[in-house]
Amino acid sequence: MKFCELTETEFDTFSKEVSCKNFFQSLETLKRYKNNKEEVYLVGVKDNDKVVAASILVAYKESKYFNYKTFNAYKGFLMDYSNNELLKFFTKEIKKFIKSKKGFRLYIDPYIVSEQRDTDGKVVEGGINNLSVKESLLTLGYHYIGEYTQVKWNYCLDIKGKTKEELFKTFKPNTRNNINKTLNKYLLNVRKLTLEELPLFKKVTEDTCARRMFKDKTLKYYQDMYKAFKDKVVFYICELDCDKYIANLEKEIEAANERIITLSDSPSNKNRKLSLAQEVKSNTKRIEEAKAIKKEKGNIVPLSAAMFILWGDEVVYLFSGSYDEYMSFCGQYRLQWEIISYACDNHYSRYNFYGIKDLFNPQGKDYGVYEFKKGFNGYVEELLGAFVIPTNLLGKIIYLIKK
Q1: What's phi and psi for 372, nearest 5 deg?
Q2: If you compute the radius of gyration of the chain from its CA atoms, what whole number of angstroms results?
Q3: How far apart (Å, rounded) are the C-alpha atoms in residues 403 and 386?
Q4: Residues paired with 46 in a beta bridge
Q5: Are strands 66-73 and 103-108 parallel, antiparallel or unpaired?
């Protein structure tokens, strides 16, 4: 085996073949780093001239007063982690390489499942278990730190070989109901945003992050991702067409009034008439609300927006936002259904809702996000988590101090 720096072609070919492939470890991500003038390296291991391990390494100076750097292999190495000999060799050589570049530590968070779990986060008996990889990493000098900069817990949906109609039937009733309302009552429209329209996306995420006290990405980040990933990334916006919505409500009112007239005054129709009258009253109120929205915001009103990565055999729901005052229109449900339908029609194997938190804490501030994703009836995915390994004495001392 030989440790070396790889060419972009070598890395790109290998990164698409390995089972733990992910967009963090991709040629597109590498190009984004390079375009931003970041310190980045492409390293790997060859066995008889065949690439068997690879990784993008990103280096960051801790401060302008501190000459040593932290290295990151986001979502870990691309390799077979069960191959202990390879893991040991790659670790030893990568430590030497980082040390030569004035690096004092390396963070990794492998894109492999720790233990297989069900929709409630319970461990599946006899399911996938990669805890032996964790033990191997600890033996090699890595220290386990759980969550770092990337998420450890995901929520995913198995869509391999399924049609969108089959999948829809598996969703929880409330989720199906909300999606149907966005399609048949609110008539919401979903469209792709162009590069020039990304400020619209940023405006939505900025509003959401301010409300939920999250740190938003910069507009430049979204633009860089759009340019680097090209057709492998989509930015969708969900909008309400007030005129179309009002016209649909008026049709429903007209149909309900006609039905009331045709029903006889028999006692058996009393409750039905009351229900139809309530429907007319409710839709009349909705029309007034829609007219008020149109007067304030214009006819086309953005409700929600989301960013999706189309990578390998999965679609990843990466970032999104919604305007709080329009939550009742269920724009996020419409966005999810749009991209899940696309994933099914284009034969992806799974849909990754990405990060979840507080799944074991119903009182947690992010439990609602988990509940929303859970409505699509997928499963919890627990990744192995993050590890740090010092590459010199300074790294060991700093780790011990932080510990």
Answers
A1: -60, -50
A2: 25
A3: 15
A4: 2, 51
A5: parallel
User: 40 - beta bridge partners?
Assistant: 58
CB 159 within 8 A of CB 317: no
pLDDT at 140: 97
In degrees and rounded to multiples of 5, residue 119 shows phi and psi of -65, -25
Question: Which residue, 88, 105, 115, 125, is CA-closest to 1?
Answer: 88
Report pLDDT digits (tens) over 370-379: 999 999 999 9
Chain centroid, CA 78 distance in Å: 20
Name the one residue in this structure whose structure tokens are 């065949």.
Answer: 50
Whether the full predicted model's pTM is greater than 0.85, yes or no, is yes
Q: For residue 199, give both structure tokens.
A: 């400020």
- Max intra-chain CA distance, the chain: 90
Cβ atoms of residues 373 and 157 within 8 Å: no
- Calculate the alpha carbon distances from 56 to 51, 141, 347 in Å: 14, 21, 28
Task: Report the amino acid identity of residue 203.
Answer: K
- From the list 313, 245, 258, the residue with the least C-alpha distance to 23 is 313
Report in angstroms the alpha-carbon separations of 298 from 146, 183, 240, 249.
47, 21, 10, 18
Burial class from Cβ neighbours inside 10 Å (0-12, 13-18, 19+) for residue 104 reads buried
Burial group, residue 357, by CB count within 10 angstroms (0-12, 13-18, 19+): middle
Residue type, 117: R
Secondary structure of 307-347 as H, E, C letters: EEEEECCEEEEEEEEECHHHHHHCHHHHHHHHHHHHHHHCC
175-215 per-position pLDDT tens digit: 999 999 999 999 999 999 999 999 999 999 999 999 888 88
Q: Are 228 and 28 in contact (CB under 8 A)?
A: yes
d(CA 246, CA 15): 50
Per-position DSSP letters for 36-104, written without gaps between them: TT-EEEEEEEEETTEEEEEEEEEEEEEETTEEEEEEEETT--BS-TT-HHHHHHHHHHHHHHHHHTTEE
Among 400, 398, 402, 387, CA closest to 103: 398
The answer to whether 277 and 270 are in contact (CB under 8 A) is: no
Instruction: In whole angstroms, give the CA distance from residue 164 to residue 149.
Output: 33
Are the C-beta atoms of 219 and 206 separated by less than 8 Å? no
Mean pLDDT of the chain: 94
Q: Tell me the CA end-to-end span of the chain in Å, nearest whole number.
A: 35
